[in-house]
Every structure is written in C-alpha cells, then in structure tokens.
Description:
The chain is an all-alpha fold and 454 residues long. It has one domain (12-453). 86% of the residues lie in helices and 0% in strands. Helix 6 runs parallel beside helix 9, helix 14 (351-367) runs parallel beside helix 17 and helix 16 (387-413) runs antiparallel to helix 17.
Amino acid sequence: MEHNEKFTMMTQTPIHILIPKLAVPTIISMLITSIYNMADTYFVSQIGTSAAAAVGVMFSLMSIIQAIGFTFGMGCGSFISRSLGKKDVKSAEKAGAIAFFTAVVMGLLLALFGLLFIDKLVVLLGATETIAPYAKDYGKYILIGAPYMCGSFVLNNILRSQGNAVRSMVGITTGGVLNVILDPIFIFAFDMGISGAAIATIISQLISFFILFSQCNYIDGSIKIKISNYEFSPEMYKEIIKTGMPTFYRQGLASLAAIFMNISASPFGDSVIAAVSIVTRIVMFINSALIGFGQGFQPVCGFNYGAKKYDRVLESFWFCAKVGFIALAIFGFIGFIFAPDIISLFRANDVDVINVGTRTMRFQCLVMPLSSFTVIVNMTLQSLGYGWKASLMASGRQGLFFIPTILILPRIIGITGIQTSQAIADFFTFILAIIMIRDVLKELKQAGKLQEKE
C-alpha cells in the first residue's frame, strides 16, 4: 500500500472498522510479547519457588530494556504518524533512523555495564541470597540480547505507526511461538535450568529482530531504516524524547516499582515474591490485550490529528474507552472467580504461593476495568504531543501512587499491604486520568466546531 492510500485509509475508513482492523494484529503482538515472560515464569516455576521468584526479580531488567526500546519507538512512532498525516515521508524516515540506531547503542551500553556488574545488579534489583544465583544465571543472557531487543521494540512501533500492524505482528508472533517451543527444550531436555529459559528468550528475540528489520527495509510501502537516513538533529531528538518520555516513565517506573515490591516482600519469604511475580505476569498478560488495542488506536489518533480531523480523534477515543472497559470487566470477573486455579497452574505444590497469589489477584481484578480508561487517556495524550500531561499520567500508576503505597502499607498491615498496593494505585491513577483528559477533550471538541464553521 502506497503512502497516499494509507492516508486515505487512516482518515476516511469508519472508526469502528479501522481501529479493530489495526488493533487485532497489535493485540496479538502484545499478547505474544507477554508470552515471553509468561512462558519463562511457567516453565521456570517447575524448577522451584526461588527460581520462579528470580524471574520476577529480573523482570525489572526486562522493564529497563523495554523502557529504552519503547521510549524511542513510541517517540518516533507518534512523530511518524503525524508526519505521514502531513505527507512528509522524509521526516518520518529521519525519525525512524535516529530512534532505531540510538536505541541499539543504548542497549549495547546497558549490556556492557550490566555484565560487568552482574553480581551487584541482581542484589540491587531485590534478589535475596537464595534467589540471587538463579537471577544471575538468567540475567546475564538477557543482557547479551539487550541491544537487538531494544532495536526490535523500535522497529515494532515504526511499523505500527504507519498502519502496518500485521507486519509487526508477524515478527513478534514468530518469536513468541518459538520461545514457547524452546523453553522446555533448553530448560528440561538440555538440563540448562533457568539459564535455558533466558537463552530461549534471546534466540527468539533475535529471530523477531531480523523479521521486523526485513519488514521495514525490504517490503514496499514502509519507510526505510538505513544508516544513510541518520542525521544528528537536536530538534528531532528533542521531539522524539518529548513524546517518548511518558513511555520511559511508565516502563522505567515499572522497573523501579518491581524492585521496591521485591524489597518489601523479601521479609515475608520467597513464596510471597514468587506469588506477586506470578500475579504480575498474569495481569500484564490481560492488560497487554488492552495496550495492543490502544496501540491500534494510536496511529489513527496521530494521523487524523495531523490531518486536522478532530471529530475522528474524539470518536476513536470514546470507541476505545468503551470497548476496553467492557473487555476488562469480563476478564476481571473471570480472574476473580478462578484466581486459585490460575495461580496453581504455576506452583501447584506450594500452598503459600497459591494463597498469597489468589488474594493479590482478586484485589487487582476488582479495579481492572478502570485501567481501560487510564491506558487510552495516556495513549491519547502521547499521540497528540501533550508531553507533560502524558508524562504525569505515565508516572501515576507505578510511580506517584504505587511506590509510596508499597513502601508504606506492608509496614502497617503486613502481607495485606503487598496484596492491595497495586489495586490502590490503579484506582488513584484512574482519578488522575479523568483530570488530565478533561481539558484536552474540550479543546478537541472546540477545534472541531471551529473547523465546521470555517
């Protein structure tokens, strides 16, 4: 599809048809991305409670890698959508090259420093003495894959921002399916334990990287990611970082929040860390479907905002908010009812993990529908270039509300504080979302009316 055809599709196709068309591939991509960690958690949990907890501890490292990749990916993706909405292909290609090569270099620096200080790193991330050996064995391989994992996240967003969600899905899905296949082979058949899970992950991510890179560069209709398109530009970096910073705050604070969670849970034993880790993966898996749906919305939002079709921006916002609320309400109900059965899939022989995990999951399921509005608000603010508002929203869930809660409540009410902290943070983030989006929606509505008069 040529650029002019994409413009027509993004600005004229009915919203209720266009967003699902773009969202289904991104939902699949996000679910598959979650499967990377979900598969590792499931298979590693069969080794033991401390090993399962180690995957949870190293989730912080994965969040750092994702923070780098998604910051540049979302930052350039928003710019690319708006540029293509203005039919400025050259600027879109320049932004893509800057984001991709910068993310790869930063991933390389993370790998070098992480491997050099791996012993101190796992302790810093919250590993106990019994968890640390497993965390080290897992983390050193993940660090090796950091450069191209960062690049993959950027490529994924570049493809989606152009409306090429299906191509993005192919790369991510292939890697995810391969990871599920390789995990049991490396962990059990080759008797590599938790190291095998990490090796399976980085091999799968490498395959995804090559597929995504090929989709960008060797198929017509996509902007090309070439070193010749790279040009150091302070203005472009400023634009990418400004738009991408909300993602950095969100992912970076997710890493920091996981560290504080591990530190707060460690006095209660490895079972509590393992339980919280398992619940985090399950809830992330559910939320990844919502995020995928929202990522199908973002290019529609950016294209139409760039084309000054404000009525379509508003229509797409409310469409996503309503559909997301209904979907998460259903998932939340199912998760609340079957929480013990779901947790037992991971650690059937550990009663403490099941009991702690069940209560934790049920608290989060109670407020799960509210996350739909929060996520769509955050993505809207980011897509439209409302930098500080998007950054504040991105900081809310895991930063402004969760970190203080997880540091204070466990000291007052013990394990219950750990089990309820995320649900409390989610509720207050929902209130913040209402405050942040109210004036933006009014501005869009007024701009639409003014445009009609003109």
